[in-house]
Structures are given as structure tokens and as C-alpha cells.
Amino acid sequence: MERNDTASGGACESELECRAALDNCTGALDANLSVRCWLHLLTREYDSTLQGDPSSLALRVMIALVYSVVCALGLVGNALALYLLHSRHRQKQSSIDCFVMGLAFTDLQFVLTLPFWAVDTALDFRWPFGQIMCKIVSSVTTMNMYASVFFLTSMSVARYYSITSSLKMHGHRSAAIRAKWVSLGIWAVSFLATLPHTVYSTIAQVAPDEELCLVRFPESGSWNPQQVLGLYQMQKVLLGFVIPLVVISLCYLLLLRFVMSRRILGSALTLWAVLIKFDMVPFSNAFYNAQAYAFPLSVCLAHTNSCLNPVLYCLIRREFRAGLKELVIRATPSYRSLAQMLPRKAKVAEAPTV
């Protein structure tokens, strides 16, 4: 990619300079070279207050801190979930546990990439780790995004199948074996869906002291890079959102109909509602300023699911809480000695007096 000499420091002095800067950046995310350029072109207004805004620095530091906290909590939570699932999986195998284990492993890989994104965000989205780490970190992030959604979708299908066929005779071992094959298929599809990101992720220098880690599709024949980018983004939306949303919604709607038709006593069904809001807003400077703050903040909040998944799908279950309690007792000598003393005190208290 050619170095952009007209956008020094990420700032554009005029509309002509903005257009020249954007003409030099025909890649996938090269529009990130300057949000102010896009503001100027779309609104004919240039807001110089974005440059050096202290609130922007505070937001980036806050997001970096949240990434660090999510990384620490995610490492502990997902490692505990994997340990408890593995110890229970040897005793009782089930398809749900297999998918939850895959989800925990996916989240564990994902949180390992968060320190890199924390530094990237704190440095105003400048990538200081080089091209190889750009490919590795961005590819692992994208692949685990796909895998996480696919495992959640598989859990919905498995939950529907296990409840609707609970009166039939099915072996747990055969269901667990099928779940393992489905898990392998999930990783294979996630890897194939991530290949474009792996191949075309690169480092782009957009200013003398500014390098970004982004996806840049080259020009090839009649295909325009923007068209290829549009197809790639459409693939991400379809595979990572639309298709899983349809499958999960269908499974829970069918499950709700099954429970209502059978009127099973003591049964409980948890439904997750997905709310999609469409807003019509005019192009304005204030709107794009808000987007510059809201988008990284929303991504930050979305990443917190990596430390919430172990709690939602594993640690709230009674058998796993009991396993966690046993692990704490075995790992802590004081708790272990206290647990041994309590039964003795109970026996002494119950002993008849002479």
C-alpha cells in the first residue's frame, strides 16, 4: 500500500485532500485512516474538536481497562469451566456438555487476544505488534467469533432435541459422539470462513507514525476491492448473525410450542429475546461523532460475554457448583481441615450424654 502523504497525523485540511487520501486507500478498512475525512465528505463540515479530545482518550483508556478485566475474568472462568466439564465428562457424557466445553475453549482463546486489542485501542487504534501478529490475532479473533456463535446455535438445537425426545430411549454415549463430530464440523466451518481474513489481513501505513491492522483486498480483474469487501461483510453477517438467529429463534419457538402443548409440570423454559432496532437519522456531524464513541464502546460490551458464558452455561448448574466447592476445599488447606472438623463436631454434639 502506498504511503499517504496528504493525511499527515490523520487530519485532512480540505475536501480535496480528503478525497486524495481516500483515493490512495482502496482497501477494506482504509477509511479508518481518518474519521474526520469521512465527516468532511459526508457533511461538508470539519470538526476540529475531535483531534486531541480528552474525552476520546478517557474512553479509549476505559475500554482498554475493560478488555484487561474481561481477559482476567475470562481466563479464570473459562479455565474453571473446562476443568469442571472435563471431570464431569468422564463420568456422564452429554451433547450439551460437549458444546459448552467447546464454547468455553473458544472463549478462552478469544480472551487471550484481548490484551493486544487493549493496547491497540489505547494507542488510538495504532497497531504496534507487526504484521505476523496482526494476522494471528485478527484471525483468531474472527475464527472464535464464528465458533462461539455456532456452538451457541448447536446448544439450542441439542436442547430442543433432548427435551422433545426425552421420552424416547437414546444413549447418552451416542449423543456425545455425535456432538463431538458436530464440534469438529464447527471448527472446520469457522476456519474456512476465516480464511479471507487470514489471507488479506495486513499492516497499512496511513500516516508517518500510524499503522493499522486491517483487512485489505487487492484489485483483481473486474472485481473492485469495495465489492469484495461488501461480499465478505455480507458473509460475516449471514454466517455470524442471520442464520444463527433464525435457527436459535426457531428452536426456542418450537420448544415453547412443545412445552405448552404437553403442559409438562415443573418444566421451565428460558427464552432470550433479540431486539433489533432500526433508526432513521440524518447525516450530521453530531451523529458521526457519536458513532466514533458508541461503536468501540458497544464492541467492548459485546466482548464481556467471554467471561459471562462460563457463569451462564456452566457455573449456575447445581452439579458444577458442587464440583467448584469440592475443588476449593481440596485446593485450600484451611477449608479442607474445616470440612473435616465439621462432621466430627456434629457427631460429638449428637452423642448421648452419660
TrEMBL record:
SUPFAM superfamilies: Family A G protein-coupled receptor-like. Keywords: Disulfide bond, G-protein coupled receptor, Glycoprotein, Membrane, Receptor, Transducer, Transmembrane, Transmembrane helix. It is a multi-pass membrane protein. PROSITE patterns: G_PROTEIN_RECEP_F1_2. The keyword Glycoprotein applies. The chain crosses the membrane at residues 57-86, 98-119, 143-161, 181-200, 237-256, 268-288, 294-316. One of its GO terms (cellular component) is external side of plasma membrane. It is found in: Membrane. Residues 77-354 form the G-protein coupled receptors family 1 profile domain. GO terms for biological process: calcium-mediated signaling; cell chemotaxis; immune response; positive regulation of cytosolic calcium ion concentration. One of its GO terms (molecular function) is C-C chemokine binding. It holds the Pfam family 7tm_1. InterPro entries: ATII_rcpt, CCR1-9-like, GPCR_Rhodpsn, GPCR_Rhodpsn_7TM. This is G-protein coupled receptors family 1 profile domain-containing protein. It comes from Hemibagrus wyckioides.
